Amino acid sequence: MFELWYAAALTALVFIAIFYPALALFGRLEAFTRFVNERKSGEFKSSMVLVLFMYAVVVAVFWGWCGERIITVAVISAWGYGDAAAALIGKRFGRHVIEGRLVDGKKSLEGSLAMFAVSFISVLIVLALRGGMEWYGLVLTAFATALVTAVVELLSRGGSDTVTCPLAAMAVILPLTWLFTGVAT
To answer: In 56-67, which positions are buried (b, 16+ CB within 10 angstroms) versus exposed (e)?
Structure first.
């Protein structure tokens, strides 16, 4: 949709400036807070701000700095689709609760496995479309990214996975892509 990376990143930041005040107003309406199913007051508003901010960061790093527009899609897919799958599958089918002092709240094995599977498949597809990587590099990069993002999502506290998951995906995808293809093209 965008020709230039900074237009994409700036658009996300402009959306924050526009929607934050609007969400602050809507957040005062009881019907809105019931509709978005907030666990705590202001959660939806802060989540939207963080999502857009992290999108801008991912775009700036991969498309802007590295010139890798399609890897931006891989990171966002691992994080976005994976986290959505974890939430949806975990809520609907989560029977095996994962507990521990490092685990935040009630997370399920089913949700974590869904995050892993969806992240793996989405990263594998995006990197295959990018090309330039042998099959084993594709599989290892997708596997490592999915594993790390699933573990990070499981351990992230208080909704911080909106920041930690894309950072984790970035930290895995960039070096492995360079390892298996040489320096980014």
So the answer is: bbbbbbbbbebe
